[in-house]
Amino acid sequence: METSxxxxxxxxxxxxxxxxxxxxxIGLGNIWRFPFMTGxxxxxxxxxxxLICIALIGIPVMLSEFIIGRRAQKxxxxxxxxxxxxxxxxxxxxxxxxxAFMILAFYGVVAGWTLEYILKSLTNSFAGKTPQEVxxxxxxxxxxxxxxxxxxxxxxxxxxxxxxxGVTKGxxxxxxxxxxxxxxxxxxxxxxxxxxxxxxxxxxFLFKPDFSxxxxxxxxxxxxxxxxxxxxGMGVMITYGSYVSKKEHLGNATLQVTIADTAIxxxxxxxxxxxxxxxxxxxxxGPGLVFVTLPNVFLKMPGGYIFxxxxxVLLAIAALTSAISILEVVVAYVxxxxxxxxxxxxxxxxxxxxLLGIPCSLSMGVMSNVKFFGxxxxxxxxxxxxxxxxxxxxxxxTLFVAWHMGKDAARREVTNEGSLPARYYPYFLFVAxxxxxxxxxxxxxxxxxxxxx
Length: 453
Ligand code: TRP
Prior knowledge:
Layout: H1 3-7, H2 14-25, H3 28-40, H4 44-72, H5 76-83, H6 90-122, H7 131-143, H8 147-164, H9 167-194, H10 200-207, H11 216-229, H12 236-241, H13 250-278, H14 288-300, H15 304-337, H16 342-362, H17 377-404, H18 406-414, H19 425-447
Helix pairs in contact: 2-9, 2-13, 2-15, 3-11, 3-13, 4-5, 4-11, 4-13, 4-17, 4-19, 5-6, 6-8, 6-15, 6-16, 6-17, 7-14, 8-9, 8-15, 8-16, 9-13, 9-15, 10-13, 11-19, 14-15, 15-16, 16-17, 17-19
Bound molecules: tryptophan (TRP).
The site of tryptophan has 17 residues, from helix 2, helix 3, helix 11 and helix 15.
């Protein structure tokens, strides 16, 4: 029956695995969402809670995903079918498919904006503009019916191209090139920001906690963001785990990816806040922090032209290596389970998700009055995926490993059939069984507004 398993690709090296998985985790979530969430939730105090969420929930959920994927050697739907035959667990995989469509639809739109901003930086379009004009430029661009679509198509084409090229020749190859480049760029931006006169206000904001600014809602935001930032809850790490060799150490990989993702988020904060404070610019919330506040910062900064260009290239690279991971979850499922050639599956799925992105993009302008449950199409997809599906997915994934797979199967997977020590295992099991599911449930009930805080 298993001719397909002979053809199954595998990441070629440890560096390739880490680059691909960290490439998925490090994205718009780190460089665009994390800084403004930190700004809105009281700075350092939010960061401390976020770090606790990463350690307590992020790590066990990620390890659970890797365990499922590598044990089953299948895509996210079939993994559950192989490990729990005849049981409804595979529905968790289907939920992942739905999340993938929803997230990539709006993610591709924002990623497209980063390409426009690379061009704006290249052509020095911010020069001589007032802060109001820079803000109006952003508003005018995202509400234009055609221009953002053009960039969204280009971005989705690039993501589709990498997935079309395969797991080793696509995902692994491009991640190994793009991730070091991303790290280099962010280090340059950090040095620039920290060495600005007056940077200390921003550094203090990031590292000196003021717990009076942290609300209960801030706590829950931190947990939700941990999920989004680590790419958890929809099967990315299940799918990537299925390409990991049986010789690799899953516990170490989990730790390395988590540390890389967290470090890049903190470094993004360090590149942004010291610069914002140094020029006494009032940071705006949400999408504006990166697309409005930062161009204003770059206008005042010595060497701003080149740093602006570097920043938006950084953002585009981060978005690309994340987008491909979402696409791969669906392509792996459709090509394996429906026996469609990978190339064909890639074209069909990329096109379908791009189409779903069109109303997302238009909801910033001509469709801004079309509301579903009081939300624009863009906000609806964002809310339903991040606040409902991912969280439910993570909940069931940890329950599956801790309660259904059984102690032994999971232990055999993390110890490579007993050949590796894993002294952390009892702690992992305890957290995966009790702590993580309870904490996740609290976030979920809050997300739906069932528990008000
Ligand atoms: N983690 C990515 C970011 O921080 C986004 C992302 C990629 C994602 N794959 C995911 C989010 C799967 C949730 C689920 O931008």
